[in-house]
Amino acid sequence: MSRPGERAGGLGEPAGAVGAVGAAGPAAPAVSTAPVGAGDPGSLRADAAAVLRGWTAPTAEEELLREEFLEHLRAHEDAMWRECVPGHLTATTAVLSHDGLRVLLTLHPKAGMWLPMGGHCERGDATLAAVALREATEESGIPGLRLLPGPLALDRHRVWCHPPHSHHLDVEYGAVAPADVEAVISEESLDLRWFPIEEIPELSDEATRRLARRAREVLRAG
């Protein structure tokens, strides 16, 4: 679960905060002028940069976030890992039912909100899509999830990985569960439930609603 804090661009933080990652943390290292991932095309950081460079943002706000995420990747060699104090890339996945009518949400123990599956990258992850699928599978307990083409959205939110705070630079996907499967709650969740996409509870956020709707659109268009 990657969204326990305040959100970017009207979803928890003012739009003017975009580009402020690391403002409260240590000074960022000098930004390299070389392309991210140059010389290490197999790395997760290189994959993240390629994904973001190739993604067309559907909103002006997300275009600013896309540029910010790429700048963060250029400035921090450890940008993919939780150890990166100013902030780090994470992946979130909206898991839909096979018919696209419902979304599976987890009750986040820290935020006390219903949110999609998601979390930190791990050293064994080869791609951002792999992170999204792994987190969705682990937190839903559902085997055989099918990842939709993505990313579908970007979001930045404040978290407390490194007090007083850090940021998650969240790259968001959608996935579809097989028919007639049962979700299994994980140790990371207080509860796990299916909700009709148009009836996501008030105790959630607009980024979750946006991601679920976009995933449904992609599934229907597929």
Describe the model.
The chain has 222 residues and is of the alpha+beta class. It has a single domain, classed as Nucleoside Triphosphate Pyrophosphohydrolase (Alpha-Beta Complex). Helices cover 25% and strands 21% of the residues. The protein contains four helices and eight strands. Strands 1, 2, 3, 4, 5, 6, 7 and 8 form an eight-stranded mixed β-sheet that branches. The longest helix is centred in the N-terminal third of the chain and has 16 residues, at 60-75. Residues 8-42 have low confidence and may be disordered. Residues 86-217 form the Nudix hydrolase domain. This is 8-oxo-dGTP pyrophosphatase MutT (NUDIX family). InterPro entries: NUDIX_hydrolase-like_dom_sf, NUDIX_hydrolase_dom.
SSE arrangement:
Blueprint: H1 44-54, H2 60-75, E1 88-96, E2 102-107, E3 114-115, E4 117-120, H3 128-140, E5 146-147, E6 153-159, E7 166-176, E8 192-196, H4 206-221
Parallel strand pairs: 1-7
Antiparallel strand pairs: 1-2, 1-4, 2-3, 2-8, 5-7, 6-7
